[in-house]
Amino acid sequence: MTLPPGKLFLVAAILFGAALAQAANPSAASPSSDRQLASGPAGRVPAKPIQSKFSKFSKPGSTKAGHRTTAAGRKNQRTASTTADDWTLGNDGKVIYLTFDDGPQPVFTPKVLTVLARHQAKATFFVLGKEAAAHPELVETTRGQGHSIGNHTWDHPMLTHLTPKRVHEEIFSGVKSKCFRPPYRDTNPAVAKVAAANHQRQVLWDVDTNDWEKPGAARIEREILRGAFPGAIILMHDGGGNRTQTVAALDRALTQLRARGFTFRALPC
Ligand SMILES: [Zn+2]
Question: What's the CA-to-centroid distance between 10 and ligand 1, angstroms?
Answer without folding.
Answer: 33
